[in-house]
Amino acid sequence: MRKQSRKKYKLNRMLALSLLVVVLIFVLYPFYCMILSSFKTTRELYNIRSNPLWVSKPTLENYLHLFTKTNYLKWYFNSALVAAVTTSISIFSSVLAAYALSRLRFRGAKPMGTGIFVVYLIPQTLLFIPLAKVVNSLGVANSLWSLILTYPTFQIPFSTWLLMGYFRNLPREIEDAAMVDGASRLRILWGVVFPMSLPAVVTVTLFCFTLSWGELIYALAFISDSLKQTLSIGTTTELIRGDMFFWGPLMAGGLLAAIPVVLTFSLLVDYYVSGLAAGGIK
Amino acid sequence: MKIRQREGLVAYTFLLPALAIVLSMVALPLVMSLYLCFTDTRIDRPGKFIGIENFRFLWQSDVFWTTVYNSILFTFASVVLKLLIGLGVALLLFQPQFKNKWIRAIVLLPWVIPSVFGILGWLWILDPLYGSLNWILTHLGLSKIPWLASPFWARFSVILVNTWRGVPFFAIGLLGGLVGIPKEIYEAAEVDGASPLKKFWAITLPLLKPPLLVITLFSIVMTISDFSIVYILTRGGPVNATQVFATLAYQYGLSGGKLGMGAAISLFMFPFLLVSAAIMLGIISKGETY
């Protein structure tokens, strides 16, 4: 009897483990193929008889192609610049707005909180047409300014919503004590609340950065000049020309673009997973 | 009273930067959309009012109805798959032996990495001639599949990639819900001799319902409005078989320069958004989730 249940327990564990392996393969397979292909020679890539799941003569030629024959480094720089600027603007605005919405009593606080959530649900694909018109009439079309002006629109609602939830759960007593001491609201926010909320701020900063880093449709809609492009459009429009695919450089470009995100993610895994569990929804 | 007023003033000052950006770059464009869709505005010149001409054109266009069909089909199929697989993965990761943050981190990868770069990997895997999927098929003695070239398989591929990208989000989100269920309830059920299946039906599912609903509705909004998967994999082809609202709006509005028509197409996403938002707000305001 006991032997039997031991056996059953073992079988269950094996089953769970094999299921997990299947899940991990499904999740990682595209990345595995990208990594391999980025190190393949052109000859091996286009040899039907070669094994696509292995690389025989690793080479860096695809990466060299990116750096020497395309504007890849420039796109990288552009993406980093736009992500850094927009994330800063958004974090600044969101911390202030979330604090007001979660802590201060004023007329219209509740509908505004609801409004933030609704705006957060409005997809970029609903706004890119009128925004193209706005960007055009502001005269910032085809420049990074068009992205700097528009990216905060999807970063702020998300960040504000997440921070509001976090601020609500902070103990009020510390703030009240500071109020009695005559500190202003701004001082309390930056001196007391902000340091206590660091985990949430870090999570939100990460999400904002990632959202900006991989954004496609606004960049595609507002920018045509190769030197002004970001990674997402640069790689997908310049390394795919009609029916011509530069597979090697395309994979290398996609990978290099994913690296900063993966790095920060692996350093801050705890923040991410807990942030998501707390309702941080992209 | 005076303190109240002062607090209001402080609040509005704090809200100013965020409100200024949201009003000028979200509210204003939305209102513009509602106006643009009744005009023949082009990207390079202002248009004139043409009433419901854009909608009449769409109503009579086969491509538009294919787009409506695709958008709903992709959303329904992908969300159902994401939900089922995501719930399965969440239950799997909930097993005590897999309680490891790195396993969770790896499962989250497709959702963390900006989707553009992951989809490029799929584009390569699905390539008919050099892609690894067809290579595997031929080595298993099966025939090759035109993953992105035939209407059926192109639709299949779009749903597949959508599922791949969305499962992590469902899995980790639902895992958060599972972790939040008090252990005592399960222990009480065990004392009563409930089977694992019975426990799942009677305890896990009902208690997971609020987060499950919120995640599902959220996913519906994100899936119906998605642009990048179809744009990178198929550009809406073959012969519009995978065209969705966002890609069609892009094609008419920006490639074709007909902003008015593009705005009209985009607006069809709005009802889905409103209904989902209303239900979600209802659940959240009940305070049952998170």
Average pLDDT of chain A, to the nearest integer?
89
Strand content of chain A: under 5%
Distance from first to last alpha carbon of chain A: 50 Å
State the assembly state of the protein chains: heterodimer
Largest sheet of chain A: 2 strands, antiparallel
Query: Structural class, judged by helices and strands of chain B?
Result: mainly alpha
Strand content of chain B: under 5%
**How would you classify the helix and strand content of chain A by structural class?**
mainly alpha
Low-confidence stretches of chain A: none
Give the helix level of chain B as a range of percent. Answer: over 70%
Poorly predicted runs of chain B are none
What is the alpha-carbon Rg of chain A in Å? 24 Å
Radius of gyration of chain B over all CA atoms, rounded: 24 Å
Instruction: Please list the strands of the largest sheet of chain A in the order they lie side by side.
Output: 1-2
Instruction: Determine the fraction of residues in helical runs of chain A and give it as a percent range.
Output: over 70%
Distance between the termini of chain B: 34 Å
